[in-house]
């Protein structure tokens, strides 16, 4: 008599290695102001300076790391990687974010595939693969694409 085969237990789907947190771009500016004023602040210091919830500060700091406008430094502290006009007006601050998005390698690859005629969904998937992002999940890129559209950085011919 043959032994019955065990049913395969469904495994949890692997999580996408990229995640961009949903947040309003305007909420980012007090966080960047904190990074400009404080020396290697941690998340709680940034939250206190910006007057926001620490979880929100953490999400925004992760987005800063993703687009390359900040880096981790010291013991769990953060630092800006680009000049930031903390005394500037909102348009000057938006320009810094726009430039960071333009330089972001993932979005550079997206624009290349858009220039070749791919749809946005296909371009993002292919760019994610080029950037070594595993377990692709389109929903992980939604907030980044929203910021990119707001900042007008997805035109294929943008240099």
Fold and architecture overview:
This protein has 159 residues and is mainly alpha-helical. Among the domains are: 25-86, Winged helix-like DNA-binding domain superfamily/Winged helix DNA-binding domain (Arc Repressor Mutant, subunit A), CATH 1.10.10; 104-150. The chain has helices at residues 25-37, 43-50, 54-67, 90-103, 105-115, 120-130, 142-150, and strands spanning 70-73, 77-80. It has a two-stranded antiparallel ribbon with strand order 1-2.
State the gist of this model:
With about 160 residues, the protein is mainly α. About 50% of the residues lie in helices and about 5% in strands.
Q: What is the helix tally?
A: 7
Largest sheet: 2 strands, antiparallel
Global mean pLDDT: 90
Secondary-structure-derived class: mainly alpha
How does CATH name the architecture of the domain at 25-86?
A: Orthogonal Bundle
H-E order? HHHEEHHHH
What fraction strand? 5-15%
Our Rg estimate from Cα atoms comes to 19 Å
- Rounded to the nearest angstrom, the distance between the terminal CA atoms is 69 Å
Instruction: List segments where confidence is low: pLDDT < 50 over at least 5 consecutive residues.
Output: 6-11
What order do the helices and strands come in, and which of them pair?
Elements lengths: L24 H13 L5 H8 L3 H14 L2 E4 L3 E4 L9 H14 L1 H11 L4 H11 L11 H9 L9
Antiparallel strand pairs: 1-2
Helix pairs in contact: 1-2, 2-3, 5-6
